[in-house]
Amino acid sequence: MPSLAQMNGSLYIHRFYIEKLRTNQERLFASDPELAQLLDNVAAILSEHAAELAEDIADREDDDS
After folding, report:
1. Which branch of life, at top level (predicted)?
2. Per-residue pLDDT tens for 9-56?
3. What angle do CA 56, 59, 64 make, to 5 degrees?
4. CA distance readout (Å), 17 to 24, 32, 54, 61
């Protein structure tokens, strides 16, 4: 099982790439809507995983206190 620090690092990385995907999706929307939609779909999947990870972190922090 990963440590709390590893989980927080993973959450940070998820959020970083979600932001990058969203930024590029907005930039590409006019020129390549299909690619923009694909980036949006990937960001949505990562967002779901990040939410689950944040929940796991909160549970772990509650267990530690």
Report:
1. Bacteria
2. 999 999 999 999 999 999 999 999 999 999 999 999 999 999 999 999
3. 125
4. 10, 20, 15, 24
- The answer to whether the CB of 41 falls within 8 A of the CB of 18 is no
Backbone angles phi, psi at 28, to 5 degrees: -90, -10
- Location of structure tokens 């939410």: 51
Report the C-alpha gap between 30 and 5 in whole angstroms.
40
Query: What are the structural domain ranges in the chain?
Result: 4-60
4-28 helix and 33-64 helix, angle to the nearest 10 degrees: 160
Nearest partner of 11 among 61, 41, 55, 42, judged by Cα: 55
Pull the structure tokens for residue 31: 């020129």
